């Protein structure tokens, strides 16, 4: 079994055909086909279904994929380690974050990394749920996650870097004079992200704590529309403070909660050494650069 053969398997799985895989790897299509056929002969099992239009992994191929991705990532980590000797002049960091953490702290941390090491490239994935974020870490598609420290963290290493408060966005014309008690939330019409997202989960947990069910009247995948929806009178929104955009002249007011609702934010990765770019970003994060609207924290835990 050769690393090149594993690279072919991962490329076919990711791109859906031998031709697309060959183009992505900049090799001839017969090389991909012959390499995978040799690996299948060695293992005695088909790894790829060759379809009339495209190709997809078999059950055996799917079983091999996580190990294949991990092996390739370890190889890239080794190459990156050599590049690190030259001062992180190259390399790529595969990062995954929740959409509500894309601006803060992810953008800030990536900006600091790129400023210090302009030769490093960063790829950022943004699945909607914590479970999907952690799945990308476990199967090797991403090396480092910026996420809520919630969900099943067993077997992963976590570093808490901040605690973010939630606030309520309300139409400016109907803003209360002071903080809202949680009970006052009970009857409010809500604008929310769809079920399964981290902010929706947090919303449901808040309402469960007061024995009520949230009254979601507008459900949207477009977070950039939330402020406009609130300003228009469609409802109110419970959002992390760093996710609040400019509210000046927006028709929206930011209201505190009398009893704070918070989420723990951190970096998560598989146990073991990180590639230099990931380690550089992690080091910057735990150094405690104060996040906007968050209380910095730094804690390491292996689940």
Summed up, what is this model?
This protein is α/β, with parallel strands linked by helices. The protein contains 9 helices and 12 strands. The chain has 2 domains: 3-73, Arc Repressor Mutant, subunit A (Orthogonal Bundle); 89-176 and 239-303, D-Maltodextrin-Binding Protein, domain 2, CATH 3.40.190.
Instruction: Report the span from N to C terminus.
Output: 32 Å
Q: If you consult CATH, what is the topology of the largest domain?
A: D-Maltodextrin-Binding Protein, domain 2
Q: Return Rg in Å.
A: 23 Å
Basic shape: elongated
> What's the number of extended β-strand segments?
12
Percent in strands:
15-25%
Largest β sheet strand count, sense and barrel closure: 8 strands, mixed
Superfamily (CATH H level) name of the largest domain:
Periplasmic binding protein-like II
The structure class reads alpha/beta
Question: How many separate helices?
Answer: 9
Calculate the mean pLDDT score and round it: 87
> For the record, what CATH class of the largest domain applies?
Alpha Beta
Question: Fraction of residues in helices?
Answer: 25-40%
Order of helices and strands: HHHEEHEHEHEEEHEHEEEHE
CATH architecture level-2 label of the largest domain: 3-Layer(aba) Sandwich
Number of domains: 2
Task: Explain this structure.
By secondary structure, the protein is an alpha/beta fold. Helix content is 38%, strand content 24%. About 4% of the residues have low confidence. The chain has nine helices and twelve strands. Strand 1 and strand 2 form a beta hairpin. The two termini are 32 Å apart. It folds into two domains: 71 residues, Arc Repressor Mutant, subunit A (Orthogonal Bundle); 153 residues, D-Maltodextrin-Binding Protein, domain 2 (3-Layer(aba) Sandwich). The strands form three sheets. Strands 3, 4, 5, 6, 9, 10, 11 and 12 form an eight-stranded mixed β-sheet that branches. A two-stranded antiparallel ribbon has the order 1-2. Helix 1 crosses helix 2, helix 1 packs across helix 4 and helix 2 packs across helix 3.
């Amino acid at each position: 079994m050769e690393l090149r053969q594993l690279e072919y398997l991962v490329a076919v799985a990711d791109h859906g055909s031998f031709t697309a895989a060959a183009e992505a790897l900049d090799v001839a299509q017969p090389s991909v086909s012959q390499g995978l056929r040799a690996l299948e002969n060695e293992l005695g099992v088909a790894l790829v279904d060759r379809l009339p239009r495209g190709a997809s992994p078999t059950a055996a191929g799917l079983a091999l994929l996580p190990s294949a991705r991990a092996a390739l990532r370890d190889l890239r980590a080794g190459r990156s380690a050599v590049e690190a000797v030259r001062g992180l002049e190259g390399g790529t960091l595969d990062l995954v974050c929740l959409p509500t953490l894309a601006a803060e702290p992810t953008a800030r941390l990536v900006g600091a990394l790129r400023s210090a090491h302009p030769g490093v490239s960063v790829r950022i994935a943004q699945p909607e749920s914590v479970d999907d974020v952690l799945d990308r870490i476990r199967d090797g598609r991403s090396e480092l996650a910026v996420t809520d420290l919630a969900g099943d963290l067993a077997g992963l290493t976590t570093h808490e870097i901040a605690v973010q408060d939630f606030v309520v966005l309300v139409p400016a014309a109907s803003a209360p004079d002071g903080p809202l008690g949680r009970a006052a939330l009970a009857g409010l019409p809500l604008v929310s992200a769809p079920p399964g997202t981290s902010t929706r989960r947090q919303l449901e947990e808040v309402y469960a704590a007061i024995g009520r069910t949230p009254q979601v009247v507008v459900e949207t995948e477009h977070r950039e529309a939330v402020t406009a929806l609130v300003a228009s009178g469609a409802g109110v929104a419970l959002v992390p403070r760093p996710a609040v955009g400019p509210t000046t002249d927006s028709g929206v007011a930011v209201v505190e909660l009398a009893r704070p609702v918070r989420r723990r934010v951190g970096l998560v990765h598989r146990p073991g050494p990180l590639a230099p770019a990931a380690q550089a970003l992690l080091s910057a994060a735990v150094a405690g650069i104060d996040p906007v609207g968050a209380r910095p924290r730094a804690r390491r835990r292996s689940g």
